[in-house]
User: Fold this.
Amino acid sequence: MKKLITILAGAAAMLGIVSCDDFLNTKYYNGIDLDGGLNSVSNIEVAANGVYASVYGRYFFGNYAVSIGDIPSDLSYWNGATQHWDAHYNFTVTPTDAYLTYIWAYGYKIMNNATRVINAAGELYDSCSEDEKASLDLCAAESYALRGYASLVLTNVFCHQVKVNGTDFSSKPGIVIVDKEPIPVFTNVKRSTIAKSYEAILADFDAALAKFTAAGGDKQDGRYIGVAATYGLKARTYLYLEEWDKAIDAADKALAAGGDPALAVTAADYAANYAVSGSNTESFFYLAIDKDHNWSANSLGTLWSTYNMSPSPKLQSLYAATDIRTSIMGMDATSLPTKPVYAAGKFHCASGNFAEATTHLVNAPEMHLIKAEAYAHKSGKIADAQKSLLVVAKRNTAISSISDLPSTQADLLSFIKDERARELFQEGHRLWDLRRWGDKVNVSAHNAPSIDWMVKNYQISDMVYPIPTDEINSGFGVEQNEGWKSTFPTL
Assistant:
């Protein structure tokens, strides 16, 4: 009998990893039988919890699906001490790359299992009490949102950027959409277009929001995806689509649903945001990583410390001495200017064990920056763009008013690009930003502490990752990204 891997650890659903490979090795905790097992509200709740296990895993948001957005960019520096992510940093990946393989596999694990929860909740719904219906609506809401989120990640990683500075690539190959039913094993499938992929992503976010309304709201707990995070992901999606008005509207709704949190404007308050698990008051959705539930050597905190990744000399040069964000950007005692060892940055964690640091996935500062960029693209909206930008930019204490910001569209957009670098570093956005802006960039930094590059003037918007070999060789219809290798630079 088939089993849906589900893990339940007390009341904290997102803390359900017993050791770093338990769910990968199919050790079942409260395993639910798929052939008729999702036939009660409690079983569906456990199954919904199981979706979070894959979200939490180091194979997806616990590491790989976040890291891939930062490392092959101009913001990271690889000191060569270990081989973690070196092929991505050096743009020498192959279709057998383990990181790509896991992102693909776990993205579809999330999408398939979320669909099972959605369908089971629908089948049971009419026979339930009002309280039970609210529980099922909430399970479905979270599952729709997580399915849309995973779909957005896979579309970013394995497809061309949908828009590049106004040029539309939506007719190019997208992902295999998971919609009404999970994809059965040994079934022939076909990739949709990028346009259809984005339609499915937005449909899932809209369905999630409708279900949250039916449920009477979300769990009001950042460990679970909720209304604010779902609107935030809609805003991000519309930003990629260059639908500026819709991006602004969704970002506004995300901030309103999240209580429009005040952003830290002192070094002490900013550092406190990243000190302990779940401490970030600016976050709408985060992973519940702590001393008992983390990925140890495979954590993001380890990657950004002893596993050789640090901020590039370019990124460091973007921060003014008066910028409070430098309060978490110290180097380890073993660091050398020519071989930097970072003290984990946003994963520094006051306990001293960087593996315990929380990963913040959807956050208020990003919403303000989305609004700023969207307004800057609209005629006559420079003042609105400045107003939204100031909320984040005043983390540099030398910036206190709109008069301290650029006043022309070109200069403002250039500032916003740098501000996204300063604010969103280590949150997995930079590669997708560089691709959608269409600028030629320098990547693969070397020769620290100098600002120097192994690849210069690279048209990174052309870059498309390969579909994993295992998927292609399975023979069930997924086609490779044609000519992907030619889109990578030669070192």
